[in-house]
Amino acid sequence: MYCSECDKFIDTNKKHCPHCNTLLLPNKPDSDQLDYVKVFESSELGLTAIIKSILINADIEYLVRGEHMQSILGGQFSFAFGANIGKVEFFVHENDKEVVVELLKKL
Question: In the chain, at which end, N or C, are there fewer CB atoms within 10 A of the end residue's CB?
Fold first, then answer.
Protein backbone atom coordinates (compact mmCIF):
# COMPACT_ATOMS: atom_id res chain seq x y z
CA MET A 1 0.00 0.00 0.00
CA TYR A 2 1.17 3.55 -0.75
CA CYS A 3 0.90 6.58 1.53
CA SER A 4 0.67 9.83 -0.43
CA GLU A 5 1.47 11.94 2.64
CA CYS A 6 4.62 10.00 3.66
CA ASP A 7 5.42 9.26 -0.02
CA LYS A 8 6.36 5.66 0.67
CA PHE A 9 5.09 2.12 0.37
CA ILE A 10 3.93 0.45 3.58
CA ASP A 11 3.52 -3.28 4.10
CA THR A 12 0.14 -3.42 5.82
CA ASN A 13 -3.41 -4.64 5.29
CA LYS A 14 -4.93 -1.57 6.98
CA LYS A 15 -6.72 1.23 5.13
CA HIS A 16 -4.85 4.11 6.79
CA CYS A 17 -1.15 4.83 7.22
CA PRO A 18 0.11 3.91 10.70
CA HIS A 19 2.37 7.00 10.68
CA CYS A 20 0.06 9.82 9.52
CA ASN A 21 -3.40 8.18 9.24
CA THR A 22 -3.77 9.12 5.56
CA LEU A 23 -5.88 6.78 3.44
CA LEU A 24 -3.55 4.28 1.79
CA LEU A 25 -3.66 3.69 -1.94
CA PRO A 26 -2.96 0.35 -3.63
CA ASN A 27 -0.26 1.91 -5.83
CA LYS A 28 1.54 5.20 -6.21
CA PRO A 29 -0.70 7.21 -8.56
CA ASP A 30 0.61 8.79 -11.74
CA SER A 31 0.49 12.57 -11.74
CA ASP A 32 -2.38 12.52 -14.25
CA GLN A 33 -4.42 10.24 -11.96
CA LEU A 34 -4.51 12.74 -9.11
CA ASP A 35 -8.11 13.86 -9.40
CA TYR A 36 -8.86 14.61 -5.76
CA VAL A 37 -10.28 17.95 -4.68
CA LYS A 38 -10.23 19.68 -1.30
CA VAL A 39 -13.65 19.71 0.33
CA PHE A 40 -12.93 20.80 3.88
CA GLU A 41 -10.25 22.48 5.98
CA SER A 42 -10.23 23.00 9.73
CA SER A 43 -7.94 23.44 12.71
CA GLU A 44 -10.51 22.03 15.15
CA LEU A 45 -9.43 18.61 16.38
CA GLY A 46 -12.99 17.44 17.09
CA LEU A 47 -14.15 18.12 13.55
CA THR A 48 -11.45 15.85 12.13
CA ALA A 49 -12.95 12.80 13.85
CA ILE A 50 -16.51 13.80 12.93
CA ILE A 51 -15.66 14.28 9.25
CA LYS A 52 -13.83 10.97 9.09
CA SER A 53 -16.83 9.25 10.63
CA ILE A 54 -19.22 10.85 8.12
CA LEU A 55 -17.05 9.89 5.15
CA ILE A 56 -16.46 6.35 6.37
CA ASN A 57 -20.19 5.81 7.00
CA ALA A 58 -20.95 7.12 3.51
CA ASP A 59 -18.28 4.75 2.09
CA ILE A 60 -16.44 7.66 0.47
CA GLU A 61 -12.71 7.33 -0.15
CA TYR A 62 -10.81 10.32 1.18
CA LEU A 63 -7.32 11.64 1.78
CA VAL A 64 -6.24 13.70 4.77
CA ARG A 65 -3.32 16.12 4.80
CA GLY A 66 -1.89 17.80 7.90
CA GLU A 67 -3.48 15.60 10.53
CA HIS A 68 -0.14 14.71 12.11
CA MET A 69 0.67 18.41 12.60
CA GLN A 70 -2.68 18.99 14.26
CA SER A 71 -2.06 16.29 16.81
CA ILE A 72 1.46 17.57 17.55
CA LEU A 73 0.69 21.28 17.86
CA GLY A 74 -3.05 21.47 18.25
CA GLY A 75 -5.25 23.77 16.22
CA GLN A 76 -5.12 26.52 18.83
CA PHE A 77 -1.43 27.13 18.13
CA SER A 78 -1.69 27.53 14.36
CA PHE A 79 -1.57 31.33 14.58
CA ALA A 80 1.89 31.26 16.16
CA PHE A 81 3.56 29.11 13.51
CA GLY A 82 1.85 30.09 10.27
CA ALA A 83 -1.46 29.60 8.54
CA ASN A 84 -0.90 26.00 7.43
CA ILE A 85 0.42 24.48 10.65
CA GLY A 86 -2.32 22.76 12.64
CA LYS A 87 -4.86 22.70 9.80
CA VAL A 88 -6.27 19.46 8.45
CA GLU A 89 -7.41 19.27 4.83
CA PHE A 90 -9.81 16.65 3.49
CA PHE A 91 -9.70 15.62 -0.16
CA VAL A 92 -12.16 13.38 -2.01
CA HIS A 93 -12.40 12.12 -5.56
CA GLU A 94 -13.86 14.84 -7.77
CA ASN A 95 -16.82 12.57 -8.63
CA ASP A 96 -17.79 12.49 -4.92
CA LYS A 97 -17.41 16.22 -4.31
CA GLU A 98 -21.11 17.18 -4.59
CA VAL A 99 -22.21 14.39 -2.23
CA VAL A 100 -19.53 15.27 0.32
CA VAL A 101 -20.29 18.99 0.21
CA GLU A 102 -23.93 18.15 0.95
CA LEU A 103 -22.94 15.82 3.81
CA LEU A 104 -20.62 18.39 5.39
CA LYS A 105 -22.54 21.61 4.76
CA LYS A 106 -23.92 21.77 8.32
CA LEU A 107 -20.42 21.68 9.78
Answer: C
Is the whole model's pTM more than 0.85, yes or no?
no
DSSP 95: G
What are the angstrom distances between the C-alpha of 73 and each of 4, 15, 81? 22, 25, 9
Q: Are residues 36 and 93 in contact, defined by beta-carbon separation less than 8 angstroms?
A: yes
- Report d(CA 52, CA 74) in Å as an integer: 18
Confidence band for 68, pLDDT divided at 50, 70 and 90: low
Domains and CATH numbers, the chain: 30-104 (3.30.70)
pLDDT for 57 beyond 80: yes
Does the pLDDT of residue 104 top 80, yes or no? yes
Helix/strand/coil (H/E/C) assignment for every residue in 21-66: CCECECCCCCHHHCCEEEEEEECCHHHHHHHHHHHHHCCCCEEEEC
Chain-centroid distance of CA 80 in Å reads 23
